[in-house]
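Milestone M4 deliverable, item 7.
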Amino acid sequence: MTELLADTTYQAFEEVVKRSPDKPALIFLGETFTFSELHSMVLRFAAGLYEIGVEKEEKVIVYLYNLPQTIIGWLALQRLQAIPVMVAPVYTAYDIRYMANDVGAKIILCMDTNVSYIMDIFSEVPVRKVVVTNMVDLLPWWKRSFGKGFGRVPMGKIPSGTEFISFRELMKEGLPGSLPPFRGSPNETAVMLYTGGTTGFPKGVPLSAGLFLYRIVEWAKAVEPVIPIGEGITLLSAPLYHVIGQMDGLTPLLVTGEPLIIMPRVVLDAMFDHIHRYKATRMFAVPAMYRMILEHDRLDYYDLSSLKYCGTGGDVLPTEVANRWLKKFGIPLYQGYGATELCAAISLSYARDGVPPEGAAGKISPGSKFRLVDPDTLNPVPAGEPGELLATSPFAVKAYWNKPEETEKCFLEIDGEVWYRTKDIVEIDQNNWLYFRDRSVDLIKHKGYRVAAAEVERVLQEHPAVIAASVVGIPDEKVGERIKAFVVLKEDIKGISGYELTKWCKERLAPYKVPQYIEFRDMLPKSKVGKYLRRELREEERRKVSES
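Output delivered:
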């Protein structure tokens, strides 16, 4: 069985390094880094960060793709007891300005292709140092030269000035002997992730070391009967700025001591090739990814038989996809249910339980607690009835960062414990299997991401021609939901097109948050107190889908 002899994330990593120093830790673009090599790089980079002023509890933005540098940066910040703030590399200056100011970030780890965004806002944020890297920084010189020479690697330039520092140089100059003593605690924040906000601004979710370790241990236990601990190879398909990527990417490095295959971006043929070549045994992806895999016309060119555990979450798994996968590969898709605020999955499908019941999104994890309540009264619902899920666990998140109003809406204290309101309607049977029934009206699930309708509405309403906007999700079997915006223009405005508003959104929102459809209306449905009723628009669109 999986055991963890550590109280903090960094101590967990050091225990794995002691146990498996010469075992592969990371596999990236054909290069392998052992646990001892990774440990050495982490210490050198931590020393470099310390020398440029990173302090305990300081929040540092990690604005990178899935790279070895992302892992090194994450672990180095754990060593310094600083807090990585994981940010999607597809975010623009608009998002980075908000997040840097929200957490007071003085230092950013950034892709060279994104430096221009930082330069655009440098005078508006507290950032004083930008550590810049690229996709091939840690590859051998000949691979770097080949990639650059043949234009195979996106490249940007490091600006002149002392504010901008090369990742390679900072790691080279770091002296591990200069590091301060490590005195971590399970109550300290290990990482901060951002999630959608009902007021239109993303919310920082601080995840403690104790909660993070509790969840990754359960993540590891889920696979034990089909993949003995220490014998697995994980292919990371989820981004490390997402809570699923955090779980899947850090479990091999902090718990099981197994290789992690990472790719800067997921390309299906490359994914298949890596599974085939390295005999990957497990992966975790959103349902839309599994549908894409099943429908890929070159799927049968590769041998994926090494996969023993394929997990899924972030959205409802269509029964049709689950059945096709089981028939094609002879193994089930193991579904889980969770949220960033719960540090990923409060329920997991454990391999020891066999093929999950149809529609089940896992069993409640041991140690987690739940209540099902009426969403209006918060009174318990009768046994066997669906209700809004309230959840808590050891070292639970108790508040959003710097968002007291959002905290008051989403967290409750009951009998001395803090519970998170998921605002999702679920059923839980006598065996603790969880069945998802309906989601919060304020969140849209697109390609596994939670998109806050209010955030998209806020951006649209900032356009000088827009007087009102409502945003809803339209059911779509391939991506979960597509984003549709209903817009009312000011009376004296003419000639504004959907194309112009889409362009406006693309300049201010991550690509997955941009509406796929924009419909202009003379008015939007409102409640008696003047609140826009997304529900009516959502029901209208769902009727159209069901009738088509």
